[in-house]
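Final report, section 2: Outcomes. Of the targets proposed, Acetyl-CoA carboxylase carboxyl transferase subunit alpha is the one most frequently requested by collaborating groups, and we therefore present its record in full.
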Amino acid sequence: MSKPTCYESEITQFLHQYRDKHPGVEERQLEGRARLWDKPQDLELQERLRAARVPQRPYVYQND
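The predicted structure is given below as tokens.
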């Protein structure tokens, strides 16, 4: 008796085929992520910006 295979959607099959045909795509994705998103965070600067924030009035166009 053969072992039943797991179902794979067409999208999953496409992604597996794409990865096989285009080696290095995952490394390029990680490089792009590091360039755009993985930045060191300055917590002190964030706290100063949060403290300097001026509260907005409920209706900004109302004259006082």
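The first helix runs from residue 10 to 21.
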